[in-house]
């Protein structure tokens, strides 16, 4: 199974990722799922007659618990190592999209007292976005197919018009599974990165533009600037200020000393939201410039300003996620700033209405 919670654009709050599988493959190191009964007094057991014939009926399909975050991170990292040979995925990389997911509509799968797979569901307007992972030891036994089936069924029941799932670009088995289940490719996303072995080039600010670090009184204007800058992004859905404040600004993991604002006089021209540490280095969670100030070098200056701060803090590199088809040309901007593509993920979509 393949997942892509890394499919995260710096230009929106969207997290498009999902379950994808090596359905039917038979690697010799793969573990057989045990057939021991698990008590429903400990777990909420779900069984359906339409489950894949390759799955024993003693598997436990349950809702995630808050303490499953570390387990999800472990499964994701194991899968990424199998598909890409290495992984920098951990709890911090998982925490952000875990916070934004609807755990009441998500699934964990347990076998013999061990969590072996999961799928999480996120609401983005009329689209259900799902992502998940299967421990590589348990691949090829129909778990991905069953998790997608359950997710699609629930998305239909909730009235969603579309369902998005994702995969590592390298996973040909996942592509075949998605296409067999009626999904089609709709988008590609990159994780890009710059190494900070030497001090980065200093930011060059356009005439009349100043930069400052976020202050509490900037919150509503910062949120508004993000919404305006990202309004045309694929899949973007605005999050209300109070929810954004609760989930993002007031999160214990947030470090607002990494949030920067470019101003033209009293008006906000652009913003950058940096996150403390992802994938073993600094991370730019959002970068946007409002339309009246685009193509003036503000995004590049904000980017380099952030690079300098991460270098000062001793981070070895800085990364971000970007829509490969971003309408503002963000990918080219990042390449000019010295970033390179390190991973690629693919989003598939299925019409439900």
Please report the first level of CATH classification, the CATH class of the domain at 193-346: Alpha Beta
SSE succession: EHHEEEHEHEEHHEEEHEHE
Identify low-pLDDT runs: 1-9, 11-53
Helical fraction? 25-40%
Structural notes for this entry:
This protein is of the alpha+beta class. It has a domain at 193-346: Aminopeptidase (3-Layer(aba) Sandwich). The chain has helices at 69-84, 91-100, 143-157, 172-180, 219-230, 241-249, 298-312, 330-336, and strands at 60-62, 102-111, 114-124, 127-134, 162-168, 184-195, 209-213, 259-264, 267-278, 281-289, 317-323, 340-351. It has a twelve-stranded mixed beta sheet with strand order 1-2-3-4-5-12-6-11-10-9-8-7, sandwiched between helices. Strand 9 (267-278) and strand 10 (281-289) form a beta hairpin. It is globular and about 65 Å long. 46% of the residues are buried. Mean pLDDT is 84; it is low at 1-9 and 11-53.
């Amino acid at each position: 199974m393949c997942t892509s919670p890394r499919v995260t654009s710096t230009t929106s709050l969207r997290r498009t990722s999902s379950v994808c599988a090596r359905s039917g493959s038979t690697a010799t190191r793969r573990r057989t799922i045990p057939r021991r009964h698990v008590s429903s007094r400990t777990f909420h057991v779900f069984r359906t007659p339409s489950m894949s014939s390759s799955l024993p009926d003693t598997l436990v399909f349950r809702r995630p618990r808050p303490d499953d975050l570390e387990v999800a991170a472990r499964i994701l990292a194991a899968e990424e190592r199998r598909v890409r040979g290495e992984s920098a995925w951990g709890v911090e990389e998982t925490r952000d999209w875990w916070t934004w997911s609807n755990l009441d509509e998500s699934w964990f799968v347990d076998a013999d007292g061990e969590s072996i797979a999961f799928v999480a569901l996120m609401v983005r307007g009329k689209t259900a976005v799902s992502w998940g992972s299967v421990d590589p030891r348990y691949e090829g036994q129909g778990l991905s197919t069953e998790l997608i089936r359950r997710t699609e069924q629930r998305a239909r029941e909730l009235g969603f018009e579309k369902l998005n799932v994702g995969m590592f670009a390298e996973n040909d088995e996942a592509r075949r599974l998605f296409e067999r289940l009626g999904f089609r490719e709709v988008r590609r996303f990159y994780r890009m990165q710059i190494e900070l072995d030497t001090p980065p080039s200093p930011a060059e600010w356009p005439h009349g533009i100043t930069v400052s670090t976020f202050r509490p009184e900037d919150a509503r204007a910062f949120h508004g600037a993000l919404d305006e800058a990202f309004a045309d992004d694929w899949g973007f859905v605005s999050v209300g200020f109070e929810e954004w404040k609760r989930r993002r600004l007031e999160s214990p993991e947030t470090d607002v000393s990494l949030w920067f604002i470019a101003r033209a006089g009293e008006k906000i021209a652009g913003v950058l939201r940096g996150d403390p540490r992802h994938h073993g280095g600094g991370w730019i969670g959002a970068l946007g410039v409002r339309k009246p100030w685009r193509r003036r070098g503000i995004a590049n200056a904000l980017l380099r300003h952030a690079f300098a701060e991460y270098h000062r803090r001793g981070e070895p590199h800085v990364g971000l996620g970007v829509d490969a088809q971003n309408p503002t040309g963000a990918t080219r901007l990042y390449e000019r700033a010295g970033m390179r593509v390190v991973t690629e993920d693919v989003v598939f979509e299925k019409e439900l209405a």
